[in-house]
Amino acid sequence: MRRFIKGFLINLQFFTAIPISLELPMDKQHLRKAVQAFPLLGLLQGVIYLSLFYVFQELTPFSHLASAFLLWLATIFLTGGIHLDGWMDASDAYFAYQDQEKRLEIMKDPRTGAFGVLSIIVLLSCRFLFIYESTLNVEYVTYIFIAGIPFLSKSVMGVLLLTVKSAKNEGLGSLFQSAAKPQVLWIYPVYLLGFLFLVILLNKEFLLVGLLILVATCCLYFCRRKAVKWFGGITGDVLGASVEGTELILWMTVWLLHYFVMG
């Protein structure tokens, strides 16, 4: 249990802006536990997001536009922009339309190109639109969606990490991948079943949450195929881009549900 807790704290250090001043061990045992705790990291992020939105929406005089904007900002600042950096680097590499080796070189370049800038503008603009319109009529299931999106995206990240070969033997992705095997993912279905059970207890709209899980699964298979085709495997940047892309598609799904199902 101590290793699991330290693994979770490692995730907070690497993937959030939450200050963790502890000096944590980076051996294989603790990194393996960190990988197992990826979905819990996403769930914590989701709980923070829904709590902030609830406070802004229900307990302050802020307009809905302001509440949605503050939630949007929270999705950026809580992660410290680490996955957004991966999204920009992967976009620069992909839109260069070069071979895999050249794309990996472009991702290593600390400079951001025009495609990276354009892609981040599109990503964040779309996310704000989806958040704003999806929360116009807040229902109980809306808060479940807010919590579930980062939970699912971090689950996708963990599965990609351990089921897709590494494109290079350096970087953050390779560090975590070398510490764990796909067998450690057995706990992910347990998390998912626990999340679904909680949803069923709290809300009757569990079928909508099931649809969100189905969409996340489709994103996983898409990312697995394209990571190998476009980049020769996964890197830290590819994983970050996968997290951001998955969350964008999930928010778009919630947005469409708002119009055509929940409306």
From TrEMBL:
> Which Enzyme Commission number(s) are on file for it?
2.7.8.26
Q: Which GO terms describe its molecular function?
A: adenosylcobinamide-GDP ribazoletransferase activity
Q: Which InterPro entries match?
A: CobS
Question: Where does this protein reside within or beyond the cell?
Answer: Cell membrane
Which reaction equation describes what this protein catalyses?
Answer: alpha-ribazole 5'-phosphate + adenosylcob(III)inamide-GDP = adenosylcob(III)alamin 5'-phosphate + GMP + H(+); alpha-ribazole + adenosylcob(III)inamide-GDP = adenosylcob(III)alamin + GMP + H(+)
**TM spans (from-to):** 37-56, 62-84, 112-131, 143-164, 184-200, 206-223
Which keywords has UniProt assigned to this entry? Cell membrane, Cobalamin biosynthesis, Magnesium, Membrane, Transferase, Transmembrane, Transmembrane helix
- Per UniProt, what is the membrane topology? Multi-pass membrane protein
The main location is membrane
Q: Name one Pfam family in it.
A: CobS
What does this chain do?
Joins adenosylcobinamide-GDP and alpha-ribazole to generate adenosylcobalamin (Ado-cobalamin). Also synthesizes adenosylcobalamin 5'-phosphate from adenosylcobinamide-GDP and alpha-ribazole 5'-phosphate.
Q: What is this protein called?
A: Adenosylcobinamide-GDP ribazoletransferase
